[in-house]
Amino acid sequence: MTPILMVLIYVGLSLGSRTHVQAGTVPKPTLWAEPGSVITPGSPVTLRCQGSLETQEYRLYRGRKAASWIMRIPQELVKKGQFPIQSIAWEHTGPYRCQYRGRTYWSAFSDLLELVVTGAYIKPTLLALPSPVVTPGGNVTLQCGSQVAFDGFTLCKEGEDEHPPCLNSHVRTHGSSWAVFPVGPVSPSRRWTYRCYGYGSSSPYVWSLPSDVLELLVPGVSKKPSLSVQPGPVVAPGETLTLQCGSDVGYDRIALYKEGEHDQIPDTPSLSVQPGPRVASGENVTLLCQSQGWMDTFLLTKEGATDAPLCLRSKYQAHKYQAEFPMSPVTSAHAGTYRCYGSRSFTPYLLSHPSEPLELMVS
């Protein structure tokens, strides 16, 4: 039997009673992924298993048995505990463990490593409630949501060796999917930077695109900086100004925060009209509110109107969230200036910036 054939047979064994482990004699190995366990499709990744100096052989398992790709690893890499994937795809994802054989006995299994591929769905939205500015020692709730009907969400902390690096949460639904993650207590000595992902229960290791980065801002106990504005705090619309934050303390980073910014959804919808802004009385008219960013609901308002805004659920079409507001047939009472807003189901009282005004003229 050739050496390479022996490796394939060893790798192909399932986790059964034929693997003898002498507990307490051979320490369990360490399994990790380089450059990381959360990978974009098509990227290279290497799973590495490290045992003791007396290691004679390594085995890598996906679930309770070896995956087909493992059997194609050259023997010289397997002997070093290296299991490279040149271009990761969904079939490579899953839970992995490894073990090694010392001079006499097989080790216990390593801790579980979950290999994940991202980018299968549109990105969710990550918010800090009530605010991304958190006092030292305080707590905050991070809320991850999406128009996609995910079965679960994962929140990952970036930039540090976290244990665990990611947290899972079950979905709550109310017209869309969302989940909450309590975070804290926080301290100014660390960075608190997060992204979240969504996934389906049938493919728990295939995640969405990551949300935009959310960084929590934790004021420190050192001397506060000064903030000034040039040319001055009172400016005319369209003018350019510069905000300058300075300190005699040698800070590595300076963050600028606008109070109340978290009280509004950052995306701005657009409002258009068909067949056009000038119509004759009796014509059929439709106002279309659209957004690139996720919105559950759109609201249409008319300047000077005393009635409640019109409210419609959004539909995802042509890579946009949109709602159509029909006005058929129009009369002179429909003439006026309209704007639309977007909202999300888990924060229904927070609205987006308004669209640009649209003037409808009825002759």
Automatic annotation (TrEMBL):
A GO cellular component entry from the record: plasma membrane
Superkingdom of origin: Eukaryota
PROSITE patterns in UniProt: IG_LIKE
Signal peptide (UniProt feature, chain positions): 1-16
UniProt keyword annotations, A-Z: Disulfide bond, Immunoglobulin domain, Signal
GO BP annotations, alphabetical order: immune response-regulating signaling pathway
Start and end residues of each Ig-like domain: 27-99, 269-363
PANTHER family recorded: LEUKOCYTE IMMUNOGLOBULIN-LIKE RECEPTOR SUBFAMILY A MEMBER 2 (PTHR11738:SF86), MHC CLASS I NK CELL RECEPTOR (PTHR11738)
The name this protein goes by in its record: Ig-like domain-containing protein
